[in-house]
Design goal:
Blueprint lengths: L17 H9 L17 E8 L4 E3 L1 H14 E14 L2 E12 L5 E11 L5 E8 L31 E5 L4 H12 L3 E6 L2 H15 L3 E5 L5 H14 L5 E4 L17 H23 L3 E6 L23 H22 L5 E7 L13 H9 L9 H12 L10 E3 L2 E2 L9 H15 L6
Parallel strand pairs: 1-6, 7-8, 7-10, 8-9, 10-11, 11-12, 12-13
Antiparallel strand pairs: 1-2, 3-4, 4-5, 5-6, 13-14
Helix pairs in contact: 3-9, 5-6, 6-7, 6-10, 7-10
């Protein structure tokens, strides 16, 4: 690839059909026989946002440099496109990439890409998913991402501690209640499905002889959140651990009955409100811990405090999801400051790239994509339960607060989460939208 000055992509391009995508993306060499992907660059918008599991790149200049770095490092590069699906301005392609670096052996990478097309037919957003735990890093011993580092565990038990867990009948929340029950905790499941919760309660009793309780709530409805908090407070004079795990992902913009964008409501506002309503009881029960199940998806960005309902800009599911997680991280940092000296800690965590049912209430194309492509690269969610248990029980974390953990590894979140002015603004907006703000 040339190091020439990057020009804006303005000239007309041939539409990206499935056949054209296969042709362009599988071509990886130039006429000189060197690895080269410069021929795909005209198909990218000048404001392209590229995201994968380890980086976020914005703008055609940075994206061109990224492609240039990869091809210059490769002695050989092959891209096999195994499937392409196009629907409503979205292109999904599954691929196998084989690279021969100059110092390391050939490494196959199995992955998929989701390409979002703008009005001019160019790619405005690319999200790559690939097997970070597979062959790509074999033979590169110095590479260590947080998810690949040895995870921390604890032998500490939580006998008799009351643990309130939202989103507890599937995925990460379910794994959390299983592990907490194994450690002897009393489990309070806050969820929508009474039948599933009852069965889980019976299973936990048979396996671990621990008490369980069920509180029904739909976190798309803030009135339900308030009622769930009221029930928990009436039933329990002590709360030792609160784990907010309920979450959703939507590919299309929808609104709650309160007029709030649904993903922002469920992923951020509901947990914010639930935590605030239980906060006095948590203080009375100190030492106590709050764990917000967040995501590396916060690195998608997307938070605009002046357009939380996405009425002034195109809606994208990944950015919406990222916005909700960024907002949650801001309020985690704010609440940690306000709780200083109270004996209550609050931390956020990424539960790992694991198989869950999140997003499976979207349309058939997304469900197919999730089952047949994305899930191939995801891990067993049991690792999430083990990580949450460590954060809830480990004695060495008794005074750790306001942190972001990738599973059990403490790491910095995206830099924009550190902006305290934005954090204060999000706190105020969240109080207003949830009805917690003091009336004027």
């Amino acid at each position: 690839m040339s190091n020439a000055v990057v020009q804006k992509n303005c000239s007309p391009i041939e539409p990206l059909t499935a056949e054209r995508v296969r042709e362009l993306w599988s071509k990886t060499y130039n006429r000189e026989g060197k690895p080269d992907w410069s021929h795909i660059l005209p198909y990218y918008h000048e404001d392209i946002v590229f995201q994968d599991s380890i980086q976020r790149i914005e703008g055609i200049g940075a994206f061109t440099a990224l492609c240039d770095r990869l091809t210059r490092r490769c002695k050989q590069l092959r891209m096999d496109i195994t499937s392409v699906v196009i629907d409503s301005g979205e292109i999904f392609l599954e691929w196998t990439m084989v690279t021969m670096f100059r110092r390391w052996p050939s490494s196959p990478v199995y992955g998929c890409s989701r390409l979002t097309l703008g009005n001019d037919g160019r790619i405005t957003h690319q999200r790559d998913y690939f097997d970070l735990w597979g062959d790509i890093f074999n033979g590169i011993p110095w590479f260590r991402g947080p998810s690949r580092l040895p995870q921390k565990t604890t032998e500490a038990r939580v006998d008799g501690r009351v643990c309130v867990v939202t989103g507890s009948t599937s995925g990460v929340g379910y794994q959390a209640v299983k592990r907490l029950a194994q450690g002897g905790a009393t489990i309070v499941m806050v969820c929508r499905n009474a039948e599933k919760a009852a069965q889980i309660g019976r299973d936990l009793w048979r396996s671990y002889s621990v008490g369980t309780d069920v509180v029904l709530a739909d976190f798309e409805k803030l009135a339900d959140v308030r009622e769930a908090a009221r029930i928990v407070l009436n039933r329990y004079g002590q709360i030792d651990v609160l784990i907010n795990s309920a979450g959703i992902h939507r590919t299309r913009r929808t609104f709650t009955d309160d007029g709030i964008e649904t993903v922002f409501c469920v992923n951020h506002l509901a947990s914010f409100l639930f935590t605030r309503l239980l906060l006095d009881r948590l203080k009375e029960s100190a030492p106590s811990r709050i764990i917000q199940v967040n995501s590396e998806g916060h690195r998608f960005g997307g938070l605009n405090v002046n357009d939380l309902n996405w009425k002034r800009r195109p809606y994208h599911g990944l950015w919406s999801y990222g916005a909700s997680k960024v907002a949650q991280l801001h309020t985690v940092r704010e609440l940690a400051t306000r709780l200083a000296g109270s004996g209550v800690t609050i931390n956020a965590m990424h539960p790992g790239a694991v198989k869950t049912n999140i997003g499976m209430d979207n349309g058939p194309l997304y469900r197919w994509y999730r089952r047949n492509v994305v899930n191939r690269f995801l891990k067993d969610p049991a690792i999430s339960g083990e990580a949450i248990y460590y954060l809830a029980a480990a004695p060495e974390l008794a005074n750790v607060t306001g942190r972001y953990f990738n599973l059990t590894i403490d790491e910095p979140p995206a830099s924009y989460v550190m902006n305290r002015n934005v954090g204060e603004r999000i706190w105020q907006i969240s109080e207003t939208l949830t009805g917690l703000a003091d009336p004027d």
